[in-house]
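Open question from group meeting: does this chain pack into something compact, or does most of it stay loose? Before anyone orders reagents, we agreed to write out a predicted structure and look at it together. Recording both the input and the output here so the notebook holds the full record.
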Amino acid sequence: MNINADERLDLTSVTNHGDNTSNLSSQEEKLFKVLHDVVQPGDAITPDAAAEQINEYLRSHPNRSGEREEDTEVVGDFLGSFWSLLTSVVEYTPYNHPGQDRLIITMQSLTKRTQGSYAIWGQSALQVWSDLPLLGPCVREKWNWAATPSFNNPYHEMPGAKEWINIIAFTARLIGAKIVNWETFPIWALREALEEPFRSVAENDIHALVAAQWIFHAGEVIYGLSVEESLVENPRITKGGSLFDGESGFNMKRWAFWKKRAGALSNEVSADVREIASAVVEKMSEIEGN
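Structure tokens returned:
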């Protein structure tokens, strides 16, 4: 799917109920405007300015009292609401639109700012913004989408498919930029895409696009972890799919298997996706040579 870099994005689905009335609070409306403007082409707002506005909205939140214990709930509510809004904007920002990169720059700028340390949801204290508390659970919530089996129409007509690929692309960018260290996410995605039997053309298209996002945007990180044979905290959740009999976690046997399967997958996709699917193997070889 080709995207014009100058194409303005329609984000009305983020804010509207079916009757075209906004479902956002006044605070969320302000945050949405910042996110809306930063993903659009042009210079309505820079990523640094967007990060500063977001930070200021939290700093000056009317319900903050200055007492850490009382403010923990306020900060937690703000972050939960903001990350939910952010990931909703991501869903409607195509994986190959420059708006995705502008959001990543905004995130990098946010992590350089501070609003103190808070033990949100009863967890150990995390720094706002550098630790990005609650972002992981919000992204994980979006991860539960599943393809419709034996779907016979083009993949982009499958309910939720485009939005899911966009979320994958953003997550891969976060990891590739080393903003977060979520080692399980790429394994889950590549396991589903490349370690199971191929399915319908529409499902294959989706999995090829998903694999492409991880390799194009986080391939160097994934390869580095594979060379190191990095194990995740709970190996059980990163064990192989039905076609891979190697060790869990990252390793070179698994990287080589992914590369082989990516090549085979490029022959099982539609003409619209074949070019990007074929480029995955080329990118993996390029990464190996660096």
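Observations to bring back to the group:
The chain has eleven helices and two strands.
The longest helix spans residues 201-228.
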